[in-house]
Amino acid sequence: MDKYEKILGGILGAAVGDAMGAATEMRTTEQIIDYFGGYVKELVNPPADTFAKGNAAGQVTDDFSLAYFISEAIIRHRGEVTEAVVMEGLIEWSEHDEYFVPFAGPTTRAAITAWKENGVPVASDMILNNGRATNGSAMRMFPIGLIRPGDLDRAIEDAVVASLPTHGNHLSISGACAVAAAVSRAMQDDADVDEIVFAGLYGAKQGERRGKEFGITVAGPSVYKRMELAIDLAAKSGSVYEAMRDIADYVGSGIHVAEAVPAAFGLFVAAKGDTMETIYGGVNIGNDTDTVATIAGAIAGTLNGSRSLPESYLSIINERNKMDLGRLAKGLHQVSGG
Question: Are 78 and 150 in contact (CB under 8 A)?
Answer without folding.
Answer: no
